[in-house]
Specification:
Layout lengths: L9 E3 L7 E6 L3 E6 L15 E9 L4 E2 L6 E3 L8 E7 L2 E8 L8 E9 L5 E13 H4 L15 H4 L6 E2 L4 E4 L2 E6 L3 E3 L4 E8 L4 E10 L7 H16 L7 H12 L1 E2 L8 E2 L10 H14 L2 H12 L18 H16 L2 H23 L16 E2 L6 E2 L2 H21 L5 H25 L18 H5 L8 H5 L5 H14 L10 E2 L10 E3 L2 H12 L3 H14 L10 E3 L12 H20 L5
Antiparallel strand pairs: 1-2, 2-3, 3-4, 4-5, 4-10, 6-7, 7-8, 8-9, 9-16, 10-15, 11-12, 12-13, 13-16, 14-15, 17-18, 19-20, 21-22, 22-23
Helix pairs in contact: 4-16, 5-6, 5-7, 5-16, 6-7, 7-8, 7-9, 9-10, 14-15, 14-16, 15-16
Length: about 600
Amino acid sequence: RVTERPMTTRRYLQGPLSERLLVFFREGKITFGECIHRDDWKSMPYRDQPAHGVWLVRGAADEPFDHADAVMLGEANGVPVHGQRWRESGLEVTMEACAPFGRKPTVQARLVFENRGTVPLEQQVGLMVRAAPEMKLVFGAPDIYKIYAPPIQDWRAQESTFVDKGNGLLRDENRFVAYVGEASWDGRAGILRMSLALSPGERRVLDFTVGKGEPVRPDFDGTRDDVRSDWGKELARVADRTPFVQSQIVQLLQCFARPTEGEFVLPRQGGLQRYVWPGETIHVVEALDRLGYVEYARMAVDFLMRFAKEDGQIGPFANNWASETAYTIEVLSRHCRLADDADCWRRHYPAVLSGFRWIRAMRAETAKGEDGLVAGLFPPLKSTDSKKCFQHWGMTDLVNEHALGVLAEAAAWFGEKEADEIRVEWTDYRSAIGKTLDRWRTASVGKETFFIPLAPDGREEKPFRDNHFFYLHPGAFVEGGYLSVDEMLRLRRWLLDEGIADGNGLYMRHTSPYPELRNHVWYTTWCEYQWSFGWRRVGRADLAKQALDACLAYSVTDENYVGERVHDRTPWFFPWSPNASGSARILKMLMDAGRDKPLSGNTK
C-alpha cells in the first residue's frame, strides 16, 4: 500500500494558450522551453528540444539547495505565483516566479536573501545560467520516471554560452537573462554571482527575467498583480472556490498550448511532453465542458480532428493506439452533446462518420473467426504504448464500443439520418463483447473471484505483467456496465489476490524493470475513475468514494498537484506532473459524487 502523499517537484508558470513551457523546479531551477509541434510525431525534436534556464547555487562549491528542504510557497487556489524557501544558518532564501498571460511570455522572478539570525553573516550565492537541450537541463526529462534526485553535475557539464552585454543583461543569441540588483557575471563558470554580507534583519533582493527575443526588464510586482487578476477572471467562471478545484482548473488550462508555428491549439497531457493522447483528452474535454470552459474543449476537439484521414482513421498520434479513432470520435461526440455545439458537430461529423465506418470494416475482418480470433472483435493491433499486439478486448474493443454508443446518442441528438445505423452497429458490438464475456462469467460461477482475461482467448497473463505490459484492465468492463455488483465484488477480490489492486481503493499496480521501482509503482486515476463510475452505477457509493479518496490521498500533493504514478515507499517518485487528464478524472469523480451544481459553470 502507498504510505505517503507524493511531493511536488515542479510547477508550471505559463498561462493558457502560451507557446512557451515555463517550469519552476523544487531545487531552485527555472527552465524556459517551447512547444515545438510536428504532425509527424516521430520527427518531434525532443532529444534536441532547445531550452535555457537558471539554477540557484550557493557556497564556494556552487552547490544547489536541497530540494527536500524547500518549503513550498504559493497561492491557495493554485494561481501560478509560485515560491519556495530555504533557511540555513540564519540565512533565509526565498525564490518566487510568475509569468504573464500571452503567447510569448517571459518569466519574472525574485530572489530575497535575509539574515534571520542574531549575528552578521556572509555567503556566496548565484544563478547558474545555461542554454542546452532540455533533456540535459531537466533530470529524467521529459517524464521523470525516476526517484527525484536532480544532479547539478548535468548543468556543470554544459558549456556556458551566455555573454554579459552590460546594463544587467546576459545574452546567448536570442535567449536572455536580465536582472536588477547587485551582482556580477562570472563568464568562466557561467554564474551570476552575489556576495552577501548581511547584518541581522538585513535583506538583499535580486529581480530577474528569463526569456527569448527582445529583452524584458524585471517587473515582478507588476507582473504578479497582472497574473492574479487574469487568473482571477478565468476562475470566476466556476462557482466552486475550494483550493483543490481551483488548482485543478489552473493546471488544466496551463496544458493548453500554442505551437511555435501554426494557429491551432495543442491540448498537452502534461509533464514536459508536447505529445497528445486522445484517450487522455476525453477526460479533459468532458471536465472542461461540464465546468463551462467550452471554448477550450472545442479547441481540443479541433486539434484531434486535424488527424482525420480519407480512409476513416483518425491519427496516428504519438504512440499509434488501435483505439485512437474511437477515442477521437468520443471526444467530439461527447463535447458536442454536452455543450450542444452544433457548429463543431457540423464541421467534423463527416470525418467521424468515416471513422465509424472504418471501425465497422475492421470488425468485419474477424467475422469468420479465423486464425483463432474471436469474431466481431477487432483484429490484433497495438493497444497501448506497449508494442505487443493481440485482441486486447478490455482495452481496444471496449473503447470502440463505448465511442460508438456516445456517437449514436450525439447523432440522434443532432438529427442525423445515420443515427439508427450507428446504433445498430453499437448494439451488435456490445453483444459480441457480451457473448465473449459469458464464457468467463460461466467459468466463474460458484467461485469467490471473477477472472476476466487480458485477451479473450484466456492466455496466461502473468508474464505480461511481469514484463511490464501496461495493465489497463479490467476496469473498462466495470465502467461499461457489463457486470453485476456481485461480479464486480468478485472481480475486485481477484485483483486484490493478484496484488494488482489495493484494499484502500487503488486499482492498478504497475511493474517496472528498474530495481528501485520493481512492484512499488501505482498508476493512478485512470482505473480508479472507471471503478468509481461503475460502483456508483450499481449503487455502491461507499466504494466509489473509496476510489476517489484514494486518488485524493495518494495521487495529489499538498500543493494540489496531480501526477500519473506514485511509489508506495517514497514520495519522491511522481512522474508526469502536472497531469491534465489526472486532474480532469478527479474533477469528474467529484462532480459524479454530487458536486456538479457548485462545480459547474455550464448552463447548457
